[in-house]
Design a protein that fits this description.
septation, 2 domains, five-stranded antiparallel beta sheet, Beta-lactamase, 36% helix, five-stranded mixed beta sheet, Penicillin-binding protein 2a (Domain 2), alpha+beta
C-alpha cells in the first residue's frame, strides 16, 4: 500500500501543477486581453469613475422690436454652489464666506449645518462674473462656480406685459418669453472633465458638444410707439384717478401689433416685491362689455343687409324705449325727434340703434360681430389670452337683440375690439394679427363689403368731426374716425352692475382718407373729472395717435390749403420830389 501511494503521488503533484499553470495562464491571458484586445472595457470603467460631463449653458435668443432695438438680452452670470460635506470641514471660514456673500453669518452658518450631508447646494445665483470670481479666489474648500445666463430687459416696465420674463433657470414663464420658449431657448453643450473621488476637478479634457444658441425673435412692437403709449396711459390714470388701463395699436394693413401698453405695470428686472395683479396683460386677458364702441359694428350689419342707408331716418323721441319690463334710454339729449344713421352714432343713441337692430334681427348683428373677430381666438398664441363671449340664440328675444346692438350682454378684449376696427379701416378685409414682424402684407379675407366699410369710415369721421362729435379725439393735421363708449362694470360673483364703476373707451383709426393705424384705449374706473369715454379716453387716443402718425411719417390729410402770398407792387424812384433830390 505504501508503495502504491508513493507511485500515485507524482501523478497528483503533476495534476496540481498543471491546474495552477492553467490558472496562471488564464489570468495572464485575461490581463493581455484587457490591455491589448479589450482595452475599451477598462477605459469605460475607468471613465465611469472619473470622467464627468459638465453642462455648458446655451445663450438664449435675443428679442428685439421691429427696428432691431433690444427688448430682452442674455448676460453671463456666475452661480456659486457648494459641496456641503466638504464645506462642513472648513467651518472656521464660514464667517469669511458669509461676509463675502453679503449674508448674515449666523443664518448662513445655520443653513450650512442643515446641508452638511448634501453634496450639492446653491449658495447664490446670478452674480456678475467679477463678483463670482472674487469669491472663488478666496479658495474656500467645497465652494465652486457655475457659468449661467440671466435675462435682462432694457425697456423694463414699458414692455413688461408683452415680453414677459424667464425664471431663475432661464425658462420662459410669461409673455413672449413663454409663447416662444422653444424658439428662444438654446441647446446646452457638454464639457468633459476629470474629477477625483471627492468630486474635485482635476482636468478639463475637452468640449464634447458645443452649446447651440437660441434663435433671435423680432417682434412687431415699435419701441417708440410703445414708450409713447406707456407714458400717455400712465398720465391718464393719474389725471382721472383710474384703477387700470390698456392701450393697443395695430397696423391695419399687416395686422402687426405696434404697441400694447397696460397699467399698472411692473419691472421684470426686479421682481422681489411684485404685485401679481400688475403682471396681468389686461389687453389680452381682461374681458369687458364694450358698450357703444360696438355700435359701428351693428351699423355695419344694417348697411350690409341692404335694408338701410346712411340717409335713412329713425325716430328716437322721447329718448326711451320700453321692451317688456326693460327700459332702454339714451344718455345724451338728442337734437330733434329724428336722427339719420350717422346722427345715431354721433349722439350714441341706444334707442335708434335698438330700432335698427329690431329690423335686421339679432342674428345679422351676431354674424357681423363674429366675422369681425369678436368671441373668436385672435391667433396670437399669447399665454392666457381669453376669447370673450359672443352670445347666440336660436330665437333672438327683443331685449337681447337690443343690448347686443349697443354693446351689452357680450364681452371682448381690447385686442379683439381693435382688430374689429382694423377691419373697418382696411375696407372690410380681415388680416390675421401677429406679434412678430411681418415681412410682407398677409393675405386677408373679405368679411364685409368694401362699400359698407368705406361708408362706415366716413360716418365715423363725422362722429369725431361733427359739431356734436367727440372733438377731444381730433388730431391736428389728420382726419380721424372713431367712436367712444362707456360701460358699467359687472359686479363680481353677483348679478347686476357695481355702483359708480365704469369703463371708459375709445376706438378708432387714422388717417380717415387712407387708414394705417387702429387704436383702442380702455380706462378702468376713472373717478375724478368724469367717466364718459369721450371725456376720459378720447384725449389719450388723440395724443397717442398724433405722436404715432408723426413717428411713422404718415402724410397728413387735413392740412389747411396753402395761402397764396400777396403780390407787392414794385417801388420806383420819385423824380419830382419837392426837395429836388437834396437831403
Amino acid at each position: 500500500m505504501i508503495g502504491l501511494e508513493g507511485a500515485l503521488y507524482p501523478w497528483r503533484f503533476r495534476l496540481v501543477l498543471a491546474l495552477l499553470a492553467l490558472m496562471v495562464g488564464a489570468i495572464a491571458w485575461r490581463i493581455i486581453d484587457l490591455h491589448v484586445f479589450d482595452h475599451d472595457f477598462l477605459q469605460a470603467h475607468g471613465d465611469a469613475r472619473s470622467v464627468r460631463h459638465i453642462p455648458i449653458p446655451a445663450h438664449r435668443g435675443l428679442i428685439t422690436d421691429r427696428n432691431g432695438e433690444p427688448l430682452a438680452v442674455s448676460t453671463p452670470v456666475t452661480t456659486l454652489w457648494a459641496n456641503g460635506k466638504e464645506l462642513s470641514k472648513a467651518s472656521e471660514r464660514w464667517s469669511e464666506l458669509a461676509s463675502a456673500l453679503g449674508q448674515e453669518p449666523k443664518a448662513f452658518a445655520q443653513r450650512l449645518q442643515q446641508a452638511s450631508s448634501r453634496e450639492f447646494m446653491y449658495l447664490v445665483r446670478g452674480l456678475t462674473p467679477e463678483q463670482g470670481q472674487a469669491i472663488l479666489d478666496l479658495k474656500v474648500p467645497g465652494v465652486y462656480g457655475l457659468e449661467e445666463f440671466r435675462r435682462f430687459y432694457p425697456a423694463g416696465e414699458v414692455t413688461a406685459h408683452v415680453i414677459g420674463f424667464t425664471d431663475v433657470d432661464d425658462r420662459g414663464r410669461e409673455g413672449m418669453e413663454l409663447a416662444f420658449d422653444e424658439w428662444l431657448a438654446g441647446v446646452p453643450g457638454k464639457r468633459q472633465v476629470l474629477k477625483d473621488r471627492r468630486g474635485r476637478l482635476i482636468k478639463d479634457v475637452q468640449v464634447a458638444q458645443n452649446a447651440k444658441a437660441g434663435k433671435a425673435l423680432a417682434l412687431s412692437i415699435d419701441l417708440r410707439l410703445q414708450y409713447l403709449a406707456h407714458r400717455e396711459l400712465r398720465n391718464a390714470l393719474v389725471e382721472n384717478g383710474a384703477k387700470a388701463g390698456s392701450l393697443v395699436i395695430i397696423d391695419v394693413k399687416t395686422g402687426e401689433v405696434l404697441a400694447m401698453a397696460n397699467q399698472p405695470t411692473y419691472n421684470p428686472n426686479n421682481r422681489r416685491s411684485l404685485d401679481p395683479a400688475a403682471m396681468r396683460n389686461r389687453a389680452m386677458i381682461d374681458v369687458f362689455e364694450p358698450g357703444s364702441t360696438v355700435k359701428p359694428l351693428s351699423m355695419s350689419a344694417a348697411l350690409q343687409s341692404g335694408r338701410w342707408k346712411p340717409e335713412n331716418i329713425v325716430e328716437v323721441w322721447p329718448g326711451s324705449l320700453q321692451i317688456g319690463r326693460y327700459t332702454i334710454k339714451d344718455v345724451s339729449k338728442t337734437q330733434g325727434r329724428e336722427l339719420d344713421l350717422t346722427g345715431i352714432l354721433i349722439n350714441s343713441s341706444n334707442v335708434g340703434m335698438s330700432k335698427i337692430a329690431f329690423d335686421i334681427g339679432g342674428e345679422s348683428i351676431y354674424t357681423m360681430m363674429q366675422q369681425l373677430g369678436l368671441g373668436q381666438d385672435t391667433g396670437l398664441g399669447f399665454p392666457g389670452e381669453r376669447v370673450g363671449e359672443l352670445p347666440n340664440h336660436r330665437k333672438w328675444p327683443k331685449a337681447e337683440t337690443a343690448t347686443l346692438s349697443y354693446g351689452y350682454g357680450l364681452s371682448v378684449t381690447a385686442v379683439q375690439l381693435v382688430h374689429a376696427y382694423a377691419v373697418l379701416a382696411n375696407n372690410g378685409v380681415s388680416v390675421p394679427l401677429t406679434m412678430t414682424r411681418a415681412d410682407r402684407i398677409p393675405d386677408g379675407v373679405q368679411v364685409m363689403s368694401q362699400d359698407v366699410a368705406k361708408t362706415m369710415q366716413g360716418m365715423l369721421q363725422q362722429v369725431v368731426e361733427a359739431p356734436r362729435g367727440v372733438f377731444r379725439a381730433q388730431v391736428p393735421g389728420y382726419h380721424v374716425s372713431g367712436k367712444s363708449g362707456t360701460a358699467r362694470k359687472a359686479s363680481v360673483g353677483t348679478k347686476g352692475y357695481t355702483a359708480n364703476a365704469y369703463r371708459s373707451m375709445f376706438a378708432g383709426f387714422a388717417p380717415s382718407s387712407n387708414p394705417r393705424i387702429a387704436m383702442v384705449v380702455v380706462i378702468d374706473e376713472p373717478s375724478k373729472a368724469g367717466y364718459f369715454g369721450g371725456l376720459v379716453s378720447a384725449p389719450v387716443f388723440s395724443r397717442v395717435m398724433a405722436g404715432s402718425l408723426r413717428l411713422m411719417n404718415i402724410t397728413p390729410d387735413n392740412l389747411p390749403p396753402p395761402v397764396a402770398p400777396t403780390p407787392v407792387a414794385p417801388q420806383t424812384a420819385d423824380a419830382g420830389s419837392s426837395n429836388g433830390g437834396r437831403i
